[in-house]
Amino acid sequence: MTPIWRTTLTLAGAATLSVSIAHAQTPDLSEPPAIDGDVVGDHGSVTLRMGIGLAETSPQYLSSQYFADILDQRSEGRISVNIFPNSQLGDDVQMMEMLQTGSLDMTYPSSSPATTYVEELAVFDLPFLLPTREAAIAVLNSEVAQSMLDGFDGTGIKALAFSENGFRQLSNSAREVASPEDVAGLDVRGLSVRTMENPVHLSIWETLGANPTPMAFGELFSAMEQGVVDGQENPWSTILTSNFHEVQDYGSETRHVYTPFIKMISERTWDRLDAEYQELIQEAALQAAEYEIQLATEYDDWSRNQLEERGMQITRLDDDQIAAFQEAVQPVYDEWAPRIGEDLVAEIQQIVEDTMND
Ligand code: TK8
Questions:
Q1: Of 26, 104, 190, 336, which is most buried with the most CB atoms under 10 A?
Q2: Are 152 and 228 in contact (CB under 8 A)?
């Protein structure tokens, strides 16, 4: 499945020539870690249906395959996972609701739309809170993060593990963006930007003078293609593996938010499983999350370079330019930090600081 770029060259006085340029579909990726650990006892056959938002080339999908492989091998084929990519079963919000009713077993949404279940997760939506991947991972591994996962208890959803979606970058089809003023558009209208279904994200883009529209991820490509919105923000790997460059000319390396993914299972499904199967699924979720972070890391800059190669104009922002964005979104902190909890924000900031001082 090599993606092919078809370019039509018209040679003077000659027939039209169609040239295909093959692009690598993935970077050089680490092999998944060897699967070890005992085979679990026979507690019957189980098939888990798992819906995800992203495409088959994404770290989200590739790590989900690894998750499925661990369960397959360590149960001698008794636990199988069917992965449904590309939001084909629904978007993040819908799939979480399906977990609650038991009509879907597993999903892997961003934390942002999950704030309706666990409000504290909104701390991840605060702009420029997590400056480096190292800091982000330290937060994901912290006790305070674990208590957010525990916060799902009783919602009908069991949250198994955090993983990485990644640093979000702005893309759009209207103009180059290097400053908050470019977002707001001084002489022209502000950019219309699709956001995740999350109030902090709405607030970020409103504050920057954009015209934000919350929308399901699965509807985004055609919304951009039809010009319903000018742009969106997601990690480079998502922009690439979702082919957004086909409908987006400009990218800006804003890194304005780092959002995690959360691997989830329906409590109805969970409660039906034997304890030994539960333990295996929990362990596999953590191993797959770790592998995904590695894949996402390998994808990140590579994806940006691929996008550039495929014709997207990418604007890299220097420290001063990032600082200008940071300053512009300060009102988002003033509004949201008290609502999310000043103590929680301070606790996360402390973890970040500790990683910077190491
Ligand atoms: C995929 C989503 C997506 C997220 C978004 O299901 O909605 O923009 O970043 O990747 O979780």
A1: 104
A2: no
